[in-house]
Amino acid sequence: MILQGANWLLTCDKNNTIIQDGGIVFDDKIIEIGYFSQLKEKYPNITSYEPKQNSVLMPGLINSHVHLEFSANKTTLQYGNFMDWLHSVIDKRDVLIEKATSQYIEDKLTQMYKSGTTSIGAVSSYGFEMDACLNTPINVVYFNEVIGSKGDMVDTLLADFNARLQSSISNKNSSFIPAIAIHSPYSVHPFLLREAINIARELKLSVSAHFLESSEEKEWLEKNSGGFLNFFKNFLGQTTAVTKPLEFLNQFKHLEHLSFTHCVEANDEELEKIKELNATINHCVTSNRLLNNTKLDLDNVNGINLSIGTDGLSSNNSLSMFDELRNALMIHTNSNLNGLADKLLKAATSGGAKALGLNKGILEKNKDADIILFSLADEIEEKKNLSTHIILHTKEVDKIIIGGTYV
Ligand code: BEZ
Ligand code: FE2
Fold this sequence. Notes:
Elements: E1 2-10, E2 18-26, E3 30-35, H1 36-42, E4 47-49, E5 55-59, E6 61-66, H2 82-99, H3 102-114, E7 117-124, H4 130-135, E8 139-146, H5 154-170, E9 176-182, H6 190-203, E10 207-211, H7 215-223, H8 227-236, H9 245-249, E11 258-262, H10 268-276, E12 280-283, H11 285-290, E13 305-308, H12 321-331, H13 337-356, E14 371-375, H14 386-393, E15 399-402, E16 405-406
Parallel strand pairs: 1-4, 1-5, 6-7, 7-8, 8-9, 9-10, 10-11, 11-12, 12-13
Antiparallel strand pairs: 1-2, 2-3, 5-14, 14-15, 15-16
């Protein structure tokens, strides 16, 4: 058992409770939080670390949506237009995937925990990053992705998906948790969708899907026209979409841990359905900006759980959650700054835990002890600025605790 103190303890609970001169007692789970001095009296014989000046303790960050297999992209893919980007991914994916060796991805994962991330939702297209995910101390919810809209390919694609899923299930442990991803409404045949979701229900796996990321996707699904028409005609010989947005969402009933990534083009009815499904929106603001997509209207998603993802390095220049949070703070110019910062830290912790189905993301009794500790450069004069300054100034953290162990 250990007692760790800090000047500022952010619980990231629903009330955003902050304890000044706080402490946390933990082994692999959190045992108690409170004032450091009182905990020191109550637990006099355990190892304890005094609060350092301007130190902050908070739950480890949860990056709910990342594609590690595309980690080798820096200047290869095209940004600024969604269709150009998608074409460039299809052109260059083999080159990029070959460059992203296990060691390369492990190094990225190391940078991720050094910058405060203790859990990720990793979308896996091929299963090539599984070894790296098994070797990292970061908790990985491993989303085996199903993709393919062509009817005559569904049996082969389902068999390939099942093989990858089984391989991840055979490697399951307390920090590597198999899950299922549906690529998107435009790219997954209804048969594959139904089969994958039935498996998720049966095995009680978390599920995630990209949804309404671009105006081209919306136009294709609603009207079978726009930028996607030529794409589907040329690559897949199709002139009509395989589903409509609401029809797609309606397939996701009775899943306990469900998230939809992007949703920037979702209308009120679709957002209402996402709420009804008790699903999370994975917000990836940098990716949306780089592919020239719309930004999520945060005022419109009240009542829906929000989490934060970096997306892959295929549509971001960083996998650091603090970099992502800084971008989110700057991009959502309509929101009150300090309120937005509080909301973003909650989305990056407890919001992500709900999306992924993890007992984490809040500093409270019985949650897993995934905790980060770092120090601000100077004193906080106004407590209401705390989240803002944390987001603005934190690049790397000093201590990372995952499952009660210092990494
Ligand atoms: C498809 O298989 O339908 C597909 C794959 C990638 C992007 C778009 C569509
Ligand atoms: Fe993504």
